Amino acid sequence: MSGKFLTGDGRRAAARADDSSAAPRATRDRNEQRHMSQRALRAWAIVHRWTSLVCTVFMLLLCLTGLPLVFGHELDILTGDAIEAPALPASQADARASYEDVLRAALKAHPGHVPQYMIWEPDEPLLPIVVTAARTDTPPDDTLSTTVDARTAQPLGMPPGKGSLKFVLLKLHVDMFAGLFGKLFPGAMGVVFLVAIVSGIVVYLPFWRKVGLGRVRLKKKRRIVWLDWHNAIGMLTLAWALLVGATGSINTLADLMLEAWRNDQLAQMVAPYRGQPPVTVRASIDDAVKTARDVAPGMIPSFVAFPGTRFASPHHYAVWMRGDGILTTRIMRPVLVDASTGALTDSRELPWYLKVLLGSQPLHFGDFGGMPLKIFWAAFDMLTIVVLGSGLYLWLTRHNPRKGRRAA
């Protein structure tokens, strides 16, 4: 019957009937939404559980080896491997030997070697490090380094070698003594770690809304207390863990990025030299550095790559210039100098991916703010170890349904 023929009481009765039929539908919709939300939460919990399990052991290794490396210089002092600039009379304090004299001093200490790099650490400008090897293409692990006094061109010794504690820790942290695969695998674990963090946030949100951020229920069972501490410390270290995890994964791609730069930008800059014979008589390194300073005023040398090494070409010095401030020290620009004449060949800004790599390194290592930042980095490293360890404990002490049924 059409609604226009209903009386007032009939229309009210029909409205009540409509309302009564709508109420179950709304309840069903709410129940379905709640059920879907619970299913999504369970899915996120599964993602968090398994991504955490996959990466925990490797992340613990990286945190444990990275902790002493935060204090790398202090570790050298503790183990007796530190090399300090000797005190000189006031008349010699401002003296500077030529770069060629520094190079000759290092080569004299290792007869038969050829130079690969001359490096100036930002916090030790008076102590350049000269890397030498039997060949220009010798792998880094088979080279020798000599620290030379920049004022007197006197060799002061060799930085920690393969047998040192610092070398072992660094190799475990960087590539686990497994070469390129050993670098890429921890990078993949870093990505899994980031997924574990994000999924952990999603799983924690309902508890956050219900109980409060960072609350630890100390009167509950021990496992609940461990879980609350795991969540609370995890939220405290959230930003740091995301930052270090992301920048660490980027750093593992350094070799691939360098190879991409060599095949792209470097190949373009040295194209006119293709097919020419290798350099036999090279120009002075002092001339090369002077040319680079003229090209990049306001910047200072970070390192010089000699002809034939990975950071240069067979026909060029590559003088890598860097910014002269705390915030610009990782901004670098390579200047290619003809190794025969000392004249400029080319200089270009680095591609975006190398800029990202260079910018990620200080954020990962925390080595740009002195001792206060080192202490901050170390503290959050230790807190992350607690988060990883507590997560592993919660997994190992998880409830076993079979054991529960047997006990019942």
Automatic annotation (TrEMBL):
InterPro entries: PepSY-ass_TM. Residues 1-34 are annotated as: Disordered. Keywords: Membrane, Transmembrane, Transmembrane helix. The chain crosses the membrane at residues 50-71, 184-208, 229-250, 375-396. Residues 9-19 have a biased composition (Basic and acidic residues). Pfam families: PepSY_TM. This is PepSY-associated TM helix family protein. It comes from Caballeronia catudaia. The lineage of its organism: Bacteria, Pseudomonadati, Pseudomonadota, Betaproteobacteria, Burkholderiales.
